[in-house]
Hints:
Blueprint: E1 20-26, H1 31-44, E2 52-58, H2 64-69, E3 72-80, E4 83-84, H3 86-102, E5 107-114, H4 119-132, E6 135-136, E7 141-144, H5 149-167
Parallel strand pairs: 1-2, 1-3, 3-5, 5-6, 5-7
Antiparallel strand pairs: 3-4
Helix pairs in contact: 1-5
Bound molecules: flavin mononucleotide.
Amino acid sequence: MTAREPHKGIIGRTFRDRMKHLLIVHHSPSPNTRLLVDHVTTGANTPDVSGVTVAAVDALEADSAAVISADGYLLGTPANLGYMSGALKHFFDVVYNDAVPATTGRPFGYWVHGESDVEGARLAIEKITTGLGWKLTQKPVLLIGQPTAEHLDECWELGAAASAMLSV
Ligand SMILES: Cc1cc2nc3c(=O)[nH]c(=O)nc-3n(C[C@H](O)[C@H](O)[C@H](O)COP(=O)(O)O)c2cc1C
């Protein structure tokens, strides 16, 4: 006798899949921004948290399926010309219509790195995620200048906290 196929929902996950999925969507084009996403991802994968899978995806490659099948999000971008990066904006442009209302109410956090002023990027991210209905569940990590050890710790904590929240 063959085992019955577990029922699959519209997003292809089975009811046996008890794991939670954290999606990190980022644009990290420089060594410093790469360092930040590496610390966020390492924190998200902390062995202190179980039951959570973590995927870090370039903002130019993330698609609606990845967003819909995730349970929570971390977003990372440089501040560019007083806004978020074009890459992160492209991500929102691509997934927005599919993500509303499928992902409404899901938790998210974010980080922004800049040389002098990240306020425009912060406002832009918060405006779009408000439209998506995502819930900001962690204090944003807003970083200026050469990343310090404290900055990297903040990034690690952002990732670890996002995973810990999904695991409960
Ligand atoms: C075209 C361009 C526009 C930028 N605009 C801003 C900005 O509006 N605010 C800011 O704080 N930094 C700005 N920056 C700096 C970037 O945020 C910074 O280069 C990025 O976070 C990567 O940091 P890194 O160069 O130290 O690796 C800009 C950089 C470029 C290339």
